[in-house]
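Re: the 252-residue chain
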Amino acid sequence: MRPTRALLLLAALAATGRLCWRLGHDRASPATEQSYAELRELSAALQTIREEERKHIARELHDDLGQLLATLRGDLALLQRQGNNHAATRKLQAGMDELLMSAITSLRRIASNLRPRALDEGGLYFALHSLRQEFVARHGISCTLSANEGDLILDDAYSTAIFRIVQEALTNITRHAEARTVRLSLYRKDDALHISIHDDGRGIAEKDMDKASSFGLIGMRERVWALHGDIAIVNDGGTRIMIRLPLPPDTA
């Protein structure tokens, strides 16, 4: 899959950030710092637009196409109950029912990937539990989640960003870590939300943290920075991601 313009922008932004870090704040020119701040603002705006588009498309898929498929399956069930005894007809109807069910399942999966309904219906706490269960079922990797529901009552922007950060971390683990267990922890402390994602895999290499092609890490960092948070990624025998997000005044 070719990288999108947004991902290419994030890669450029990450490279600029590494350059600023290596030069040091006292040596970086005001113009460089201003450009970097503007790039971060643009990145945050792109993330917001992308999530809104995802939400809209997922709602259209579920409400319109999903309803249409469900209606078709209901009509087919009525037809089957009319008791047609022709073997070829019954076989054709059974095949149609299987295809419709497969289409409905695929539609739900695609819509969920675009925008998890659990996030809108049950909030961040419920969405993370659903994500953990799906991760375990699909990949067979043990995963625990330690969190208090009251700590995760946040606005949509925060909830979506945190869900995407955890989702991206789990995706990276399945692709690269060769892990057997994962531990997720989210808790509030000192007016901030602390997130820890720890796996017992082979551990991230130092060189991989700065790769321009590491879009997963870039995306996580940009989401954290957009919320004025801090992120650290370390190799401690596995990989540990530690995030601190300052909470909005009305939720802290």
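Residues 13-26 have pLDDT under 50 and may be disordered.
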